[in-house]
Design the sequence.
């Protein structure tokens, strides 16, 4: 589990922090992957499993202030084709809850489904956590608000209702096991 007071890294990838943020933690390890790639049954002439869902584990987020303020999170799925650049293929809604420096927000895991995955070879996920200004539930960019953003590094592999280990860096859209 990655934790911050107020800063930590997501695996080995792309962490950025802007403004005033509270404590947070993100599970992103082989034993607790940050996201899970859920595959269907074997298909095709060259048997493989097609990616059906990416489940992203919600971060643990505390507010920056002793009084309750709004915090939020969302995730973005990016697709890669061969060695080309990444393209955003899905942006989740932003989920919001109240939190303080001693009280964690109550968030649940979320998923992106197969319709977003067409025409890509690999998909990765970044998570953003928002710390809204004390008087707002929408403004994290003004003084007193902030954001932490990072890429998930470890992805669990799941099919047939069971976990089958983990991989680093991205989900494969067609998984040959």
Sequence:
């Amino acid at each position: 589990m990655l934790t911050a007071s107020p800063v930590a890294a997501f695996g080995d990838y792309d962490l950025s922090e802007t403004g005033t943020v509270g404590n947070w933690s993100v599970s992103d390890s082989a034993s607790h992957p940050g996201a899970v790639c859920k595959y269907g049954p074997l298909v095709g002439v060259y048997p493989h499993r097609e990616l059906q869902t990416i489940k992203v584990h919600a971060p643990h987020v505390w507010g920056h202030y002793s009084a309750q303020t709004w915090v939020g999170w969302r995730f973005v799925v990016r697709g890669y084709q061969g060695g080309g650049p990444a393209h955003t293929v899905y942006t989740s809604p932003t989920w919001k809850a109240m939190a303080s420096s001693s009280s964690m927000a109550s968030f649940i895991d979320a998923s992106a489904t197969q319709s977003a995955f067409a025409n890509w070879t690999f998909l990765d996920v970044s998570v953003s956590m928002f710390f809204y200004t004390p008087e707002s539930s929408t403004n994290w960019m003004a003084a007193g608000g902030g954001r932490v953003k990072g890429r998930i590094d470890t992805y669990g592999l799941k099919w047939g209702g069971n976990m089958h280990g983990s991989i680093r860096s991205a989900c494969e859209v067609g998984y040959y096991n």
